[in-house]
Amino acid sequence: LPRLPPSVSGDCTAPSLAGRWPLFSLLSAKETAAVRQACVFGNSANEALYVTHSNEFAVIGLNCSNCLGTGDSLSTIAPRALDALRGKKVASFSYGSGPHVLLATESGELYAWGHNGYSQLGNGTTNQCASPALVTTNLQGKRFKEVACGSHHSLALTTDGEVFAWGYNNCGQVGSGSTANQPSPRRVAGLLQGKAVVGVACGQTSSLALVDNGELYSWGYNGNGQLGLGNNGNQLSPCRLTALQGLCVQQVVAGYAHCLALTDEGALYAWGANTCGQLGTGNKSNQHSPVQVMAEKERVVEVAACHSTHTSAAKTQSGQVYMWGQCRGQSVVLPHLTHFVSTDDVFACVATPAVMWRLLSLETEDFMTLSQALGREFDSPETADLKFSVEGKYIYVHKAVLKIRCDHFRSMFQSHWSEDLQEVIEIEQFSFPVYRSFLHFLYTDTVELPPEDAIGLLDLATSYCENRLKRLCQQIIKRGITVDNAFTLLSAAVRYDAEDLEEFCFRFCVNHLTRVTQTAAFWQVDGAMLKEFICRASRCGAFKN
């Protein structure tokens, strides 16, 4: 389900966010870097909500049934802010099939918006809500920590372990003891009375509650055995899964019509629909009672499913990720070991639709990758053991990094070098922006320079035999070419023997010949270069009428 407390939230790097979920490729690099939490949802995975490091909320996508919460029904390919949630911190997020959306904040507030044809927003009406609205009816004094959405019904868990439900109730999924729709939140009682619930989950038309002692309760539709009660009869109020008696369940998730439960000993159990092999039992037979899966594997530490898919995933103690069920249209009937590093990747790459099964966290807390740590220490006087002087300005670096990253410096440092921290190397051949960019590249593998400065860096890369840097410079120049600088860039490409870049710049000059020949750069070039260009352009037919 697309909800899970932050303590077990997903982890992902910013580059993989856009790589795994194409919707995020619409964001700029700066916008992507600001994302702290995100969820892709919707019937076609065409909507997304994300939260920035400064707790700003934004949405992007198709906006079916006003599910983006922007106050209107317009779709958007550019992020739009949700001002109603600004400054809030998300504790739990979930979505239905309409879709309708539920969000609980860390302060215990409960918001809902989107589709409301069955009162799944809990506001007592069936009118769609185009903006996040507080859910307050029958909830005075209640604080919420977790939410879960079925197709058209909703569950919310309070901080003191009570479960409230509302919305579509044709199969008893609200747990009220009847099949009448529930227009506003109602506490789920019955066998949950006096129990402290610690987790909730929803299938399409079924509900689950996990109690603090590890007991599991279910209610709602049971045509495929997804309640795990040993039969296929619907239940209008919570029933305990006695088949799991003696086991302590610590996590439960629900797919479209199947369920997965993980015990505190790392054992995985599955039950319900199995038409796509989503139970992982090796066949496609439904199971009305929990059966253990992956018993021969190592300890399982996480299970994953989503009410809009028939896909299952699990992660083991050593970090191995398995998938089964509907995977890109194929039925995988046994857990299949993948190359993925998280269960989130399974849903991004093989599920249909490619939604997120939970709110994904991109927080790195206090941890930095090696590349991030190196990048932070570049040009840092506190840790540097060497400095370059360029145009009267210092650049602080580390000999070890330079020796590891660049053959030029490895050769330079072959002889025993003084360890004096004040040691300075004078650089006269290159400008300060160019040389600093080169050293920064050695720490980060990135280059940020305008095309004109990239020419100088291309010269340096050629001199130092840094082929990757040379290619990056050529890319920058190609992307920044204009009529005004085209001939200057062509001259540089010839001078530094960059054949691909030379061809690119030459073609650009020929395609814009009249305007290029009117620029100052064209007439300031040396005679030999000008003569060669005119002859070459003539051979290409550039001067024919």
UniProtKB/TrEMBL annotation:
Residues 384-451 form the BTB domain. It comes from the Eukaryota. Coiled coil: none annotated. The keyword Phosphoprotein does not apply. Keywords: Repeat. RCC repeats lie at residues 108-160, 161-213, 214-265, 266-317. InterPro entries: BTB/POZ_dom (IPR000210), RCC1-like_dom (IPR058923), RCC1/BLIP-II (IPR009091), Reg_chr_condens (IPR000408), Signaling_Regulatory_Domain (IPR051625), SKP1/BTB/POZ_sf (IPR011333). Pfam families: BTB, WD40_RLD. This is BTB domain-containing protein. The gene is rcbtb1.
